[in-house]
UniProtKB/TrEMBL annotation, chains A, B:
EC number, as in UniProt: 1.2.1.41
Reactions catalysed: L-glutamate 5-semialdehyde + phosphate + NADP(+) = L-glutamyl 5-phosphate + NADPH + H(+)
Superkingdom, taxonomy of origin: Eukaryota
Recorded metabolic or biological pathway in which this protein acts: Amino-acid biosynthesis; L-proline biosynthesis; L-glutamate 5-semialdehyde from L-glutamate: step 2/2
Domain Aldehyde dehydrogenase: 6-287
Coiled-coil segments: 25-55
Role this protein plays: Catalyzes the NADPH dependent reduction of L-gamma-glutamyl 5-phosphate into L-glutamate 5-semialdehyde and phosphate. The product spontaneously undergoes cyclization to form 1-pyrroline-5-carboxylate.
Presence of keyword NADP: yes
Similarity field: Belongs to the gamma-glutamyl phosphate reductase family.
Protein name: glutamate-5-semialdehyde dehydrogenase
Length: 460, 460
């Protein structure tokens, strides 16, 4: 990597840390004001931003024509498609209206008379967020970062460089009208800058990569900074012995078909062997009717091949599975099907093969629900509900940074709560202050009292 | 690294993950039983364990005699010193009696009629804990891991290998009398095994290194697994313009002198320039009387040199500071002293130089308290209280894994709460289950309701 990009990256990272530290004493209302200013600035710059977006689209079209880019990626670039522009602006207002996640006390205790301890939520610091093509993510993440009190450095896909440049410029112009430094949100354009910033753990507190498993692993391999990965979703639906047939059909179809390219779509259907002759044929017919291709293990395949009349797409849409079928995130209308002899076999299969994202049981049995939800080691364990519900908006967080596939700090859909940490504030109101040397087991020593304090905010 | 240690490490890691998964459905009472069995087993094996400990001590004594080990390290090895053995056993009972940190609901919402979402605490998975000499840490960490529902692989200092082998054996024997797998707690002995296990992110969920900054950084550089570092403490005490003189003396002395080798001892004293002629002489005299060596900046040095009569140890215990003084964790009776013109200069210095562990302000001014506690970006921000209070036992957590100097997941003293994560459980009680396709903005589509549910535990 060049000396130049290393030095430029260090300047960006230092400026972000300085902007973060300077923001610690700024009032919550100023963050709301900043978000309003950003919306105004974007509205004022709309024509120029959409023109830059057209330039990105034209360049991308050439890549698609040359076979070097998928047309689905091209579609994601378009900021003027449908209500995307308006939704992006509305998202800023929605985030502004959410409660401030900072300053909330989660533990408070009087350690001694007049010695009060508060565990209180506070921002993490400087975030480095790396994401793919969709340019509106710049605005989404900037809104979440500002609201949660974190500075952010953003790196979007290179396909949207022209658009993200103008979006970032608008955000910085808006910030310059507030008490928050315009360096609070910075955009970078190159991989060399990312590589350089990944080395700067003295300035960057958390890396959030949104993309493939290989992107996340590559970043984890190249930094000491904590990584909150948003990677693949290999989700499954298990149809239990006690499943209701109608629920099984509805949940299996919705989990697979509602949006197959999403990380919370189901990739594997697991069948208790007792439902093979009863529920499986109806589920299979419904999936085939929705154009789903089924990769079946021998027992589930045998049932379909024995159906009379045969489903119309049996020859085109039903195939034997391979061991790889059960570790593949299809992201399309393909579903792997596996038969198991028991609930515990289903749980073991999921724990060994799923990506610990979201897994669902269809059952009428309360004990099976409980066992599945506790035994499956995933961020989401669902009963009779589509895996597609795993989403920050649906969970009620207003919006989300993404869906964390890590287990540390924040798991599953990450909203504002996932972008804060906590600190401990300790205050002595004692006449002589408080010192540790006075406590202990010897004669005349004080004992800790540890009386819970009922407080939702720090009283000083 | 040899093929052999890589393969042995993989077996250990796999066995730990299997033990963790098998434990998911085991009742909380069984964990308490396991802790009681461990205490019994240790009591039964006391003679053999102390004999192994004597062997470690004899080997260590030779290292000390040869000048290859410090005598303070030797002292930490001794399991039979004072009430250490009894404290270790009592610690097991104390942890057993703490509330289970799992199964606690922190967010519950009805997304739609009959569609209930619960965010519930659950174990992280498999922990790899790397620590230094003190052999009783094996028992402390094993107790915390079992109580919090995490499997653990432990690597102690090589100086205590004989002792930790027998401690681990006793723990495994005790576990074999319960439903919990004896592989739940495993000990490893070599650095080669650590290196191999650091590559196994499919089995290990969190690494907890307790030691120096360089140990923590070295591990961060060599693994994709999240690291919760317990590294240096460069803590400071700031004496504000409005400080009470008596509190300043007490807090400064206790923070430095109570236990200078601890990570929560103060290393830097920061003086508002207005207290140089008023409070500083008394603080300096008290520190010098406690045998503290002062590394002073020019203004604080000038005041001490002008004192009449001169403090007796002025010539031996007072020296000019260097820039390095303010980035050094002395871990001894040495304290760096700096003068600043303002509260905000103190905050800037701390944010730039401290290790974000624990920092204290001595002040009578409520606004200064508030500014300091919010502006200083450390895990602990204290008012008129010694930095030495930063400790899991003192905070009321019963015990601690250590004091995290990271900002992600758990910060400051880490108790049982820091060893759990959460998962989302979603249950449909609807007659047809719940699917995402029914929700949206079109005609006949349902809207999310997001009604808060008042629940402290999952009702199924």
């Amino acid at each position: 990597m060049s000396q130049e990009s290393t030095s430029a990256a260090a300047d960006i990272a230092k400026a972000a840390k300085a902007a973060f530290e300077a923001s610690q004493l700024i009032d919550s209302s100023e963050k709301v004001k900043a978000l309003r200013e950003i919306r105004k600035e974007l509205e004022a710059d709309k024509d120029a931003i959409l023109e830059a977006n057209r330039a990105d689209l034209e360049a991308a079209q050439k890549e698609v024509d040359a076979g070097r880019m998928s047309s689905s990626l091209l579609k994601r670039l378009d900021l003027n498609k449908g209500d995307k522009w308006d939704s992006m602006l509305q998202g800023i207002t929605d985030v502004a209206n959410l409660p401030d996640p900072n300053g909330i006390v989660s533990y408070a205790s009087e350690l001694d008379d007049g010695l009060e301890l508060y565990r209180v939520s506070c921002p993490i610091g400087v975030l480095l967020v790396i994401f793919e093509a969709r340019p509106e993510v710049v605005v989404n993440i900037a809104s979440l970062a500002i609201k949660s009190g974190n500075a952010a450095i953003l790196k979007g896909g290179k396909e949207s460089n022209e658009t993200t440049k103008l979006l970032s410029k608008a955000i910085q112009t808006a910030l310059s009208k507030t008490q928050i430094s315009s360096n609070y949100i910075q955009a970078i354009q190159t991989r060399a800058e990312v590589s350089a910033i990944l080395q700067l753990d003295q300035y960057i507190d958390l890396v959030i990569p949104r993309g493939s498993n290989s992107l996340v692993r590559n970043i984890q391999n190249n930094t000491r900074i904590p990584v909150m990965g948003h990677a693949d979703g290999l989700c499954s639906v298990y149809i239990d012995a006690s499943a209701d047939a109608k629920k099984a059909v509805r949940v299996a179809v919705d989990s697979k078909v509602d949006y197959p390219a999403a990380c919370n779509a189901a990739e594997t259907l697991i069948l208790h062997e007792s439902v093979l002759p009863t529920i499986w044929p109806d589920v299979a017919k419904a999936l085939l009717a929705a154009d789903v291709k089924l990769l079946c293990d021998p027992p589930s395949l045998a049932v379909l091949r024995a159906l009379s009349p045969a489903p119309p797409s049996l020859s085109t849409h039903v195939e034997p599975s391979t061991p790889e079928s059960y570790t593949t995130e299809h992201l399309s209308l393909t579903l792997s099907v596996l038969t198991v002899p028991s609930l515990s076999a289903a749980i073991s299969h999921i724990n060994a093969h799923s990506s610990h994202h979201t897994d669902c049981i269809v059952t009428e049995d309360e004990a099976a629900s409980s066992t599945f939800c506790r035994g499956v080691d995933s961020a989401g364990t669902f009963v009779n509900a589509s895996t597609r519900f795993a989403d920050g908006f649906r969970y009620g967080f207003g919006t989300e940074v993404g869906i964390s596939t890590g287990r540390i700090h924040a798991r599953g859909p990450v909203g504002l709560d996932g972008l804060v940490t906590y600190k401990y504030m300790l205050r002595s109101k004692g006449e002589q202050g408080h010192v540790v040397g006075e406590f202990g087991t010897g004669e005349g020593k004080k004992q800790y009292k540890h009386r819970r304090i009922d407080a939702s905010a720090v009283p000083f």
